[in-house]
Amino acid sequence: MLAWIFRFIYNAKHPNRRRQGNLNAEEIEAAEVFLFEVVQQEAFSDANDKRISFLHPFRDKDSIIRLKSSVSNRQDEESFRFPVVLPAKYPMVSRLIFEVHEKSCHVGIQGLLSLLREKYWILDGRRAVKDVISKCVICKRHNTAPFSVETPPLPLDRVKDAVPFEVTGVDYTGPLYLRSGEKVLVGLFTCAIYRAVHLELTTSLSTQSFMQVLRRFVTRRGRSKTIYSDRGTNFVGTEAGGGVPECDLVDRDAMCRRLKYRQRLQDNLRHRFRNEYLGQLKLMRQRSTSRAVTLDEVVLIGNDQEKRLVWPLGRIRERIPGKDGIIRLVRVETARGQLLRPIQRIYPLECIDTKKTLEPTSTLPPIDEDSSARVSNVKHDIKSRVPETVVKTTRSGQSFILIIEPSWLGKAGSFR
């Protein structure tokens, strides 16, 4: 834009040598030099400013402040050997960083900083780059972290005293291919308490095949009191089926000795389980929790099966708390309807000022009447010393501000 303004000024001054067509490299470079000069004049007093004195700065032929780098003897471009010094907190510098960020396909912090340092040296550049990238909507969509909540206590079926596989989780994994080319599946039975694993092979996902797998598991490990599954059709297809095969007849004395031996092992295992395993679970994992999700907030709905770029957007309509009162499930409205999703699958997109939502931890002390009177007197004294301003309009319609001289001006001892 500034280069086009310079061209307009040039064509106005030289009507016989008007420039037309696209901007050339010289015009763009002249506009950049002018912008750098304006920024440096407002940011630094001179080349010996104390904020940049350690960089050994100098002014080039265009009066631009550059630094003497350690690679100044390298045969390379002048902008690389002597980069331009720029301040960090300046709107034009932020726009420059964002432009390079977009041209480099939204590269990360370190990559963007390396690209900028090929031509510019921005004071506190890493922090300035972080601020710009944190405000980039595209980068926020790809890099935002999901909501997190405190880890809840384990349920009773995970910590109670029980025999192995008394509480079991079941699922299928696979498929696997045998050497003969046959496809098989693996039935996975996991003990919810001791984390023991039992595997069974099957060749089908039908309900009958699962009943055979369950029968073999019960024969080897005993009957489970509780079995958890993901409620697949092969798991709930036959509610009345199942059963345990009858045990073969064995000697009574041998069975009693075996039972006593297993009871001793069970008692020892329960003792070690309580002292060694449950003792470590007393301390919950220290996990950083994010801010609370708010109603009507626009969020991303995470999905492991799709790329983040195509994740749908949604709006929070309902927050569903868990047994401990912490929000762990939300109802999200999307373009295709409403979904129930856990809080770990929700990614925030909006920045909310958490300071405004904090509750006051203590009440303020009462205001002394004498102190409030003194403050009001000081405010009145300051207000009386500020000169009054009046907006006037000329006959041609132009407005200007008229400053009225205060009455106390010129009096001796007016300031105390």
From TrEMBL:
GO molecular function, a single term = nucleic acid binding
Pinpoint the DUF5641 domain residues. 258-349
In terms of domain of life, where is this protein from?
Eukaryota
Record's Pfam families? DUF5641, Integrase_H2C2
Q: Matching SUPFAM superfamilies, A to Z?
A: Ribonuclease H-like
Annotated Integrase zinc-binding domain residues: 92-144
The identity of this protein, by name, is: Integrase catalytic domain-containing protein
Q: Which organism is it from?
A: Exocentrus adspersus
